[in-house]
UniProtKB/TrEMBL annotation:
It is found in: Cell outer membrane. Gene3D superfamilies: Carboxypeptidase-like, regulatory domain (2.60.40.1120), TonB-dependent receptor, beta-barrel domain (2.40.170.20), TonB-dependent receptor, plug domain (2.170.130.10). Residues 349-358, 367-377 have a biased composition (Basic and acidic residues). It comes from the Bacteria. This is TonB-dependent receptor. Residues 1-21 form the signal peptide. Residues 290-299, 677-700 have a biased composition (Acidic residues). Residues 285-314, 343-379, 518-550, 673-703 are annotated as: Disordered. Keywords: Cell outer membrane, Membrane, Receptor, Signal, TonB box, Transmembrane, Transmembrane beta strand, Transport. The keyword Membrane applies. Residues 347-821 form the TonB-dependent receptor-like beta-barrel domain. Belongs to the TonB-dependent receptor family. Residues 118-222 form the TonB-dependent receptor plug domain. It comes from Paraglaciecola psychrophila 170.
């Protein structure tokens, strides 16, 4: 796409060729006067950029006279922004000096405004390059868990999603190259994110409201997985990786390749991952203990031996093919991705959990029988997704609009929960998304543009545990984003208006029996008196109900203003103020049924608990569901250059009409279902002996009591801080300390459930030409700020080590990773399975990676 010579990069200009006569030549050096080969020089407000050659030089030709802003970046250095006056004739020679920065500065690539960790008003983080490979895990949540301000839901390692500043689910949008991944991960924590870190080039995280760029679903932040599946150049390059791990006997292999000709670029990637149930340092506790008002963690500290989290294995693979047509003023490309993942859902079973009382002829028979029972009872998720993306950029040669960026996606997602070899519940989602960004020429020194965004999703869940009805959600939005430098101050402004339509034709209000925990057993015998047919009639009456249609329109509006003041050399302060609105999701409104993956019975905000004559039942709510409104302020203080750098963030987020699940203190009895035979087979013989009837009755009584969680709207406050200090001791050694904290509470008193505890730690790094070593020590404090029916969680300390040795002659590296080296018991407070599935024990990984 760009013509590169040994001396310079010459790029096409934006205006008609008749206006061109000027050029800029420059040299980029460090503070010792040495050239910085490979530095990137970009003309702000355009796609014109150059790569600095080995002598440190670059050239821009064909520029129009006037003031132009250059943005110069290089790995290990602070970014440089500088206004350049292009003369009316001739060439201007300029020297630029970059100063080193111990904190890596990487730009966000998917937004019209300039965002980076050291320069933007909005706090952002980027995990890329070797740092991404060090931290990559089987889930996006665990991959990002090391970033300041980002935690993980950790659903037993199989389906961890990111939590940003205490917010997750429908408030944190996960995208692939700027487009929604369109999976079911925001419905429940047991649903995996349909995106893969092993083939990504970077993962971008915007902390705080990012609704201007991505919509109201990003009221809490955005995670954007970036890859090169639609290539923007035809340079031949690639990487490959193979790895094995001990804690779950995991095998991982991945690769990506980009190549092409002058005008055509091609891309391919793929991965395969296989793992067994993972080991834990202590015996797992019972799932029901998660709803007690106390902890029993200490009783397992004395246990020895090997324990595993049952049904936490995984088999997954994926591949992508993409291609682009490159031309002087842009590119247009298409990619097709296929993802297939099967993973266990711990705690999600319908049979009896214990078999100790059963008598068997010998131990071999007992083991064989247990394995058979285990195989039949376990529930697995079978995730399949096909994703097509169209990406393009066009540089236009006119006087106002200078660049158009197009993104379009088509996603077909299916998530089946396999019970006893059959699909018990199937979640499906088909999404079409289109986005166009039109960036204008600098106008009165303002840079920015308009964004038009459309998305339509059709979601459904079919099966005995389908707790949400089929629904359609449509969104159409228009956004304006602008920024301008006023001397040492960068001002960023933006606004967005959306039209969200949410409709469902079959919302169910069921008749369910509610009671306090333990009451159901006393009444159970009376409930099943009589013959089998009478029991069936009672069952139908109990679980009958009514259905109704829902169709509602919402108009969320988001406004944002931010400023960054470079008040002294190497220092700046930033402030970001925003008001963001979010429409409720289908799951938050319509849920009504058992969500076995989380061990709860969920009821949406359209319904409410009503007490009458000492009995509690559920009925339609007469309350209006309001837009969730976030008023957020961020303050940032940064040192951007030198041997010591730091970032301090303080935030305050007041959210009105916050939708969250509240434990009612009541339980619902959920009957066990036999998926092994059809109804026809089950009732084929109408004459049953007394013994058979007894067996049937006992089987029907099997099931579980699930705590009732109801979606409510309350006003809440989340406030906290993030701190990061890095010291480059010398050219090889660097040390870093960090901390983050969020306090989440109801304005009327009380705490929000499942809030991340305070965390702090240090990172020690050594890097030379071939050897690199990174030691991370992270302390998670105990969490005592809990909801009424939520148990507290003890603190723990994690010790991780990563060592890599490069073999330049073969363009390869051998690496070793050790996680949780002290084999510590670590229960994640934000996890629904914290008492069933702690973090893995000591894990040793060995791998080889290569580049070409």
């Amino acid at each position: 796409m760009f013509k590169v010579s040994s001396l310079a990069v010459i790029v096409a200009a934006l205006l008609p060729a008749s206006a061109f006569a000027q050029s800029i030549e420059g040299v980029v050096k460090n503070s010792f006067g040495e050239p910085i080969a490979g530095a990137k020089v970009k003309l702000e407000g355009s796609s014109i950029e150059a790569i600095v050659d080995t002598s440190g030089r670059f050239v821009f030709e064909g520029l129009s006279p006037g003031v132009n802003e250059l943005h110069i970046t290089a790995a290990g250095f602070a970014h440089l922004h500088q206004d350049i006056e292009v003369p009316s004739s001739g060439t201007k020679n300029i020297s630029f000096m970059l100063k080193n920065s111990p904190i890596e500065v990487v730009d966000i690539v998917s937004t019209p405004l300039h965002l980076s960790s050291m320069e933007s008003a909005l706090p952002v983080s980027v995990l890329s390059g070797e740092a991404l490979r060090r931290e990559q895990s089987g889930t996006i949540g665990e991959t990002l868990n090391s970033l300041v301000g980002v935690h993980s839901s950790f659903h037993a390692k199989v389906a961890s999603t990111p939590i940003i500043r205490g917010l997750s689910g429908p408030r944190v949008l996960i995208t692939q190259n700027g487009l929604d991944v369109s999976d079911a991960s925001r419905i429940g924590p047991d649903h995996a994110v349909a995106s893969e870190a092993s083939t990504a080039t970077r993962i971008e995280v915007l902390r705080g409201p990012a609704t201007l760029f991505y919509g109201s679903g990003a009221i809490g932040g955005v995670v954007n997985v970036v890859d090169n599946r639609v290539p923007t150049d035809s340079e031949t390059r690639g990487e490959w990786l193979v790895q094995t791990s001990t804690v779950d006997d995991q095998k991982l292999a991945s690769f990506n390749l980009t190549t092409g000709t002058d005008n055509f670029a091609f891309y391919a990637d793929g991965f395969v991952r296989d793992s067994d149930d993972y080991e834990i340092p202590v015996e797992a506790e019972s799932h029901e203990d998660d709803h007690d008002d106390h902890d029993d963690h200490d009783e397992h500290e004395e246990h020895g031996g090997n324990y595993t989290v049952e049904n936490s294995s995984e088999e997954s693979y994926g591949f992508t093919f993409g291609g682009s047509y490159l031309f002087d003023d842009g590119f247009v490309g298409l990619s097709v991705e296929k993802l297939d993942r099967q993973y266990g859902i711990p705690g999600h079973s319908h049979g009896e959990e214990g078999h100790e009382g059963e008598d068997h002829d010998d131990e071999d028979h007992e083991e064989e029988h247990h394995d058979e029972e285990h195989s039949e009872e376990n529930v697995f998720a079978d995730l399949k997704q096909t994703r097509v993306q169209l990406l393009s950029e066009f540089d236009l040669q006119n006087s106002f609009i200078n660049q158009i960026k197009l993104r379009a996606g088509l996603t077909d997602y299916e998530h089946a929960e396999i019970e006893e070899g059959q699909a018990g519940t199937v979640f499906e989602n088909q999404t079409q998304e289109f986005r166009i960004d039109a960036l204008h020429q600098p106008f009165q020194e303002w840079r920015g543009g308009l964004s038009l965004h459309y998305k339509h999703s059709e979601s459904s869940a079919v099966g005995e545990e389908a707790f949400t009805p089929p629904s359609d959600t449509s969104m159409l939005a228009l956004a304006l984003m602008e920024e301008r430098h006023f001397g040492d101050v960068l001002l960023q402004l933006g606004g967005r208006i959306e039209r969200v339509t949410l409709e469902a034709n079959d919302v169910l209000l069921s008749n369910i029996e509610l009671h306090a925990e333990g009451e159901h057993e006393d009444e159970h015998d009376d409930e099943h008196e009589g013959d089998h047919d009478e029991h069936d009639d009672d069952h139908d009456d109990e679980h009958g109900g009514e259905s109704f249609a829902f169709n509602e329109n919402y108009t969320p509006i988001s406004l944002s203003a931010g400023a960054v003041w470079s008040f002294a050399p190497e220092y700046n302060v930033g402030i970001s103020v925003s008001r963001s609105e979010r429409a409720p999701s289908a799951a938050e409104l319509f849920s009504f049924g058992p969500h076995i993956g989380t061990g709860t019975y969920e009821v949406g905000a359209l319904f409410e608990l009503h007490e009458e004559d000492d009995e509690t039942h559920i009925e339609l709510s007469n309350m209006t569901i309001e837009l969730e409104t976030s008023n957020n302020i961020d303050l940032t203080f940064r040192k951007t250059e030198g041997d010591v750098g730091f970032i301090f963030n303080v935030f305050y987020n007041s959210i009105d009409n916050y939708l969250y699940q509240q434990d009612s203190g009541l339980v619902v009895h959920v009957e066990a279902h036999d998926h092994g035979e059809s109804d026809e087979e089950e009732h084929s013989d109408e004459e049953h002996s007394d013994e058979e009837h007894s067996d049937d009755e006992d089987s029907h009584e099997e099931g579980s009591e699930l705590p009732l969680f109801v979606f409510n709207q309350q006003d809440v406050v989340l406030n906290g801080f993030e701190a990061q200090i890095a010291w480059q001791v010398n050219s090889a050694f660097k040390t870093e300390v960090f901390a983050d904290f969020v306090r989440a509470r109801l304005k009327d008193g009380g705490n929000l459930p499942k809030t991340s505890p305070m965390r702090f730690g240090t990172k020690l790094s050594y890097e030379n030409t071939q050897l690199s070593a990174h030691l991370n020590i992270t302390r998670y404090q105990s969490q005592e700020h809990t909801e009424e029916y939520e148990s507290s969680t003890d603190g723990y300390t994690m010790l991780d080590l990563n060592v890599s040795y490069d073999i330049p002659a073969y363009n390869m590296a051998v690496y070793f990773k050790g996680n949780n080296l002290t084999d510590t018991e670590a229960r994640v407070h934000t996890s629904y399975l914290k008492n069933l599935a702690p973090r893995p024990g000591r894990n040793l990984s060995l791998g080889i990676k290569g580049y070409f």
